[in-house]
Design goal:
Layout (H helix, E strand, L loop, with lengths): L11 E10 L2 E11 L4 E5 L6 H8 L7 E6 L2 E2 L5 H7 L1 E4 L11 H5 L6 E2 L2 E2 L1 H13 L16 H14 L4 E5 L7 H16 L3 E6 L2 H8 L27 E4 L21 H8 L14
Parallel strand pairs: 3-10, 6-9, 9-10
Antiparallel strand pairs: 1-2, 1-4, 3-11, 4-5, 7-8
Length: about 290
């Protein structure tokens, strides 16, 4: 069941997005709406096109065809800088901070406060502390970035994005290097951002993580030409990035016509389910 969005204009709209490199078709006719305060999960195997879609949204790549709109107006990002200025922020899997610079300097790097030509460190530390505390965290903003854990580095990047007035936050495999307690903290933070109106696109290949934290329902985005809005999550193969939205609901079918694979935790287990396996690892039943 999808959360009601009424007739509100989506913050981000993709229509007919396709991408090919020479003869290799990576994305085909991707449609997607992301509203303010909505979290959308993109599930897919490695090579399914998830990262390519993120690069298109964030201005790294141009689509071969299709349209992008932001707040109902056409958007043609020619660079990541243009996308960022429009309110799209990306937190990449490889966390990029300047190691020797302080947390505060990394957070405010694009507009360091100054008194004349001299860096105003007092204002810098106050602004950085305010941005971090707004997310519910308490970090030493004077500490160098190379002393932070992976989870703390993500907090700095998210604070930086929100300080720059991000409307859409893209997270590419954000839990890949996080221990379980930090994963829990990250999703608590994402729920807080949703409540404050930030649109979130969350990219992952971890099915269990997505189900437990984004509570997907039957997807409403059209993924590929000819799919006829197939409400299947997740797809186990075929090079497709699938769409899972937050909201109350049960786990959806693994693929149309194959029953309900409620116990699958990885794409390999979905494939076992589709092949007719009667049990999954650990003796779990694959179907209702």
């Amino acid at each position: 069941m999808q959360e009601a969005t009424g007739l509100r204009t989506p913050t981000l709209t993709l229509r007919g997005i396709s991408k090919n490199y020479a003869d290799v078709q990576v994305l085909t006719n991707i449609d997607l709406d992301v509203h303010a305060g909505e979290a959308v999960g993109l599930l897919g195997q490695n090579g399914a096109g998830k990262s390519t879609l993120i690069k298109i949204i964030s201005g790294v790549e141009k689509p071969s065809q299709g349209l992008i709109s932001l707040d109902g107006a056409p958007a043609d990002f020619r660079s990541t800088h243009e996308a960022q200025n429009a309110g799209i922020a990306t937190i990449h899997q490889e966390i990029i901070l300047v190691p020797q610079m302080s947390v505060a300097e990394n957070l405010c790097l694009s507009d360091l406060p100054r008194k004349g030509t001299v860096l105003d460190r007092r204002a810098l530390y106050q602004e950085a502390s305010r941005a971090i505390k707004a997310l519910g965290f308490d970090l030493d903003v004077r500490a160098p970035a190379n002393q932070l854990t992976a989870a703390q580095k993500q907090v700095v990047l998210i604070a930086k994005a929100l300080r720059q007035k991000a409307k859409i936050l893209l997270l590419d495999e954000p839990t890949a290097t996080l221990p379980a307690p930090d994963v829990t903290k990250l999703f608590e933070l994402l729920r807080k951002l949703k409540q404050e109106g930030t649109g979130i696109i969350y990219i992952s290949h971890r099915i269990d993580e997505m189900y437990e934290n984004l509570r997907p329902h039957h997807g409403s985005a059209r993924r590929q030409a000819g799919d006829d809005r197939e409400d299947c999550l997740p797809a186990s193969s075929g090079g497709r990035a699938e769409d899972a939205r937050d909201g109350p609901g049960r786990r959806p079918p693994a693929r149309r016509g194959t029953g309900t694979c409620v116990s699958a935790r990885t794409f390999e287990e979905v494939e076992l389910c589709e092949s007719g396996a009667r049990t999954l690892p650990g003796g779990r039943s694959p179907r209702i």
